[in-house]
Amino acid sequence: MSITFFCSWVHDTPMVLLLPFFFYFFPNLIGIIMLQSSISITR
């Protein structure tokens, strides 16, 4: 998914509908980053 499409989608979508998406997406993103960093540290 391109950045311009994402920006236009966010602009057209009410922020209230985006809140559950961000609350679901960001903890998973942080978890993935922590997991990858812990894997790279153990190597």
Quick overview:
The chain has helices at 3-12, 15-42. With 43 residues, the chain is mostly helical.
Task: Explain what the structure shows.
The chain has a domain at 15-43. The protein has two helices and no strands. The longest helix has 28 residues, at 15-42. It is mostly helical and 43 residues long. It starts with a helix and ends with a helix. The chain has helices at residues 3-12, 15-42. It is elongated and about 45 Å long.
Please estimate the helix content.
Answer: over 70%
Task: Kindly report how far apart the N and C termini lie.
Answer: 32 Å
Instruction: Give the topology string: H per helix, E per strand.
Output: HH
Main beta sheet, described?
A: none
Keywords:
single chain, 43 residues, mainly alpha, 2 helices, 88% helix, 0% strand, elongated
Task: Please specify the SSE layout and strand pairing.
Layout: H1 3-12, H2 15-42
